[in-house]
Design a protein that fits this description.
chloride channel; mainly alpha; two-stranded antiparallel ribbon; chloride; chloride channel activity; 17 helices; 2 domains; Clc chloride channel; Cl-channel_core; ion transport; about 425 residues
Length: about 425
């Protein structure tokens, strides 16, 4: 049963890259008397992750010119030398620090590296740092088994993601789909507590408004649902190409005649050069999601975002720069979904397709097909927009993308992510 479940969820682009997906960890039995304590620690860990996320957002808003957080606007000009140089300078400084640091320090600095890189314009998401920090933190706990550490880390990640996006169900489903492959009741309960804690703090500190702005839409008819399904199928095909492109670029970096410590510098150089001509594709790019959902885009913008985000994501991840892949996949998928729907509307003018729905379907279909998750992508769409009439189109698009990826992509079963071996 476990291998079948892994077959469905593995083989996609990792949410946090690069990740350790090679070493298997034996599952230890958790004593019954430790379970209540574990649940309490899960709530504390999730609350800590949420508060750290709030602190990171507040700190990164001071540098919003490059990072691109939800609700923040950027004013970047083409041919701006700072746009070219900032990613290179920051990545070079990080490489110099890591050059003289030991393995233990490198692992502790990895979340910091991710945050600084995003602030400098590297086009990866903050969710990467949210996935790294809990694993690094709990690995320092000595009086706990490997399984307890994994559960605490998973609960903290769920809390951080739920706080960042205001999407507890998506966070819980994402953790269960990608990390909790044993599906034990203890692990699932801890993750639910973590996601609920993150959402509670989001409500208290950031309010109950939707993270992404989207106009209200009417229920889609059957012809429109078919159109959104076709959009999901095409986005799924692009998700397969994105995975192949990421693997191919990573292979090219491995052929460089330099130590892999300097690969991120080369990746940052390429990022800076591309950003010099198209600065809008730098940074996490969450702020572009509102533009896509509201239709405030041009055809050129759609092409640049659909292709440029995937290219830069492949370059940065392939070069070894840590960060999240959700953000670039969402932006690229939204642009691609909108572009495909424009074509479908031109070919079939009698079918009434909503372009806000098209962008949302494209976003979540790329999320589902790229990261190889399904319930998490569907929950994410509804929780971040609060538009319930989008549920059926999103289900159609995400399911189509997920199925085409599952049927066409290589089905390599991997092991669950584990804590760093030398600090556990």
């Amino acid at each position: 049963m476990r291998s079948i479940f892994q077959l469905f969820i593995r083989g996609g682009i990792p949410v946090s890259a690069p990740v350790n997906m090679e070493t298997s960890v034996p599952v230890n039995t958790i004593p019954g008397r430790n379970i209540p304590v574990l649940f309490c620690l899960s709530i504390i860990a999730a609350a800590a992750a949420a508060m750290i996320t709030e602190g990171l957002i507040m700190a990164m808003q001071a540098l919003s010119t490059y990072c691109g957080l939800p609700g923040m606007s950027r004013d970047l000009d083409e041919h701006n030398l700072m746009v070219l140089l900032i990613p290179v300078i920051v990545t070079l400084l990080i490489a110099l620090v890591l050059r003289y640091a030991g393995d233990r320090v490198r692992q502790l600095l990895r979340p910091v590296q991710s945050i600084l890189s995003i602030n400098a314009g590297i086009p990866l998401g903050l969710e990467g740092a949210l996935a790294d920090m809990p694993f690094v933190a709990v690995s320092q706990v000595k009086r706990a088994g490997v399984r307890e550490k994994q559960i605490l880390a998973a609960a903290a990640i769920a809390g951080g993601i739920a706080f960042l996006f205001g999407s507890p169900l998506a966070a819980i489903a994402l953790i269960i789909e990608l990390l909790m492959v044993e599906l034990t009741w203890v692990g699932i309960t801890a993750v639910i507590l973590g996601g609920g804690t993150g959402m509670l703090l989001h409500y208290l500190l950031r309010g109950s408004d939707a993270i992404f702005m989207m106009p209200e839409v009417t229920m889609a008819g059957v012809p429109a649902l078919l159109g959104y399904t076709v959009t999901g199928l095409l986005v799924g095909l692009v998700a397969i190409l994105a995975r192949k492109m990421l693997n191919g670029i990573g292979h090219l970096f491995r052929k460089l005649p330099v130590d892999k410590l300097w690969w991120p510098v080369a990746g940052a150089m390429l990022t800076g050069i591309i950003g010099y001509f198209s600065p809008e594709i730098l940074g996490a790019g969450y702020e572009h999601i509102d533009s896509l959902l509201l239709g405030q885009v041009t055809l050129q913008f759609l092409v640049v975002m659909a292709l440029g985000k995937l290219l830069l994501m492949s370059i940065t991840v392939g070069s070894g720069i840590p960060g999240g892949t959700m953000a670039p996949l969402l932006v690229s998928g939204g642009a691609l979904g909108l572009f495909v729907t424009f074509l479908l509307q031109f070919m079939f003018p009698a079918v009434q397709l909503n372009f806000a729905l098209a962008a949302l379907v494209g976003m979540t279909a790329m999320f589902a097909g790229g990261n190889r998750v399904l319930p998490a992508a569907i929950f994410f769409a509804i929780e971040t927009t609060h538009v319930t009439n989008a549920l059926l189109p999103v289900i159609c698009g995400c399911t189509a993308a997920y199925l085409v990826v599952f049927l066409l992509a290589k089905k390599k079963v991997a092991q669950p992510a584990v804590l760093p071996e030398n600090v556990s």
